[in-house]
Amino acid sequence: MTNGLYPGQNGPNGQQINEMATDAAGSAYLLKFDSVHGTWDEDCEAEGDAMIVGGQHIPCSRNTAIGGTILSGLVYQTQGLTGCLWWSAAFVLAAAMLSFKLPAVEPQAESGVQADNV
C-alpha cells in the first residue's frame, strides 16, 4: 500500500487504494500508526473518501468485487473517462438484451388466499 509514498519517490500517479476492511480515515490511521517500525513521520489524514498522505490526495474505495476494480482501472488508464462511460453503456445494453432471454414468471396466488373484488 505504501509503495511510492515515501518522500523523494513518485506518488501513486492516478491510482487509488481499495481497502475493504475500513474507510479512508481508518486507512490513514493505520498507515500512520500501525507499524512494527513505529509511527510514520509523514502526515496521514482523511478527507471524505480520500487520504492525504504527505500532501498528496489519494482516493480510497471499499470495493469487494476486485474483478470490477481491476477492469474499471484498466479501462480508465487506457481509455480515460470517455472509455469508462462507453464500456458502462455497453454492459448495461448487454444486461438488458440478456434479460429478454430469461423465462417469463407468471404471478401465482398464495394458497388459501382469495382476493376480494371491491
How would you characterize this protein structure?
The structure is a single chain. With 118 residues, the protein is α+β, with helices and mostly antiparallel strands. It has a domain at 17-61. Helices cover 37% and strands 14% of the residues. It has helices at 24-33, 66-99; strands at residues 17-18, 44-47, 50-53, 56-61. Strands 1-4-3-2 form a 4-stranded mixed sheet, covered by helices on one side. Strand 2 (44-47) and strand 3 (50-53) form a beta hairpin. It is elongated and about 70 Å long. Mean pLDDT is 78; it is low at 1-11.
Question: Unreliable stretches, pLDDT < 50, 5 or more residues?
Answer: 1-11
Strand percentage, roughly?
A: 5-15%
Our measurement of the CA-to-CA distance between the termini, rounded to an integer number of angstroms, reads 64 Å
Strand order of the largest sheet: 1-4-3-2
The main pleated sheet reads as: 4 strands, mixed
Helix content, binned percent: 25-40%
Number of helices: 2
Query: What is the string of helix and strand elements?
Result: EHEEEH
Oligomeric state of the chains in view: single chain
- Taking all Cα atoms into account, the compactness measure Rg is 23 Å
Please outline what is shown here.
This protein is of the alpha+beta class and 118 residues long. The protein has helices at residues 24-33, 66-99, and strands at 17-18, 44-47, 50-53, 56-61.
Key terms:
alpha+beta, four-stranded mixed sheet, 4 strands, 37% helix
Present the secondary structure layout.
Blueprint: E1 17-18, H1 24-33, E2 44-47, E3 50-53, E4 56-61, H2 66-99
Parallel strand pairs: 1-4
Antiparallel strand pairs: 2-3, 3-4
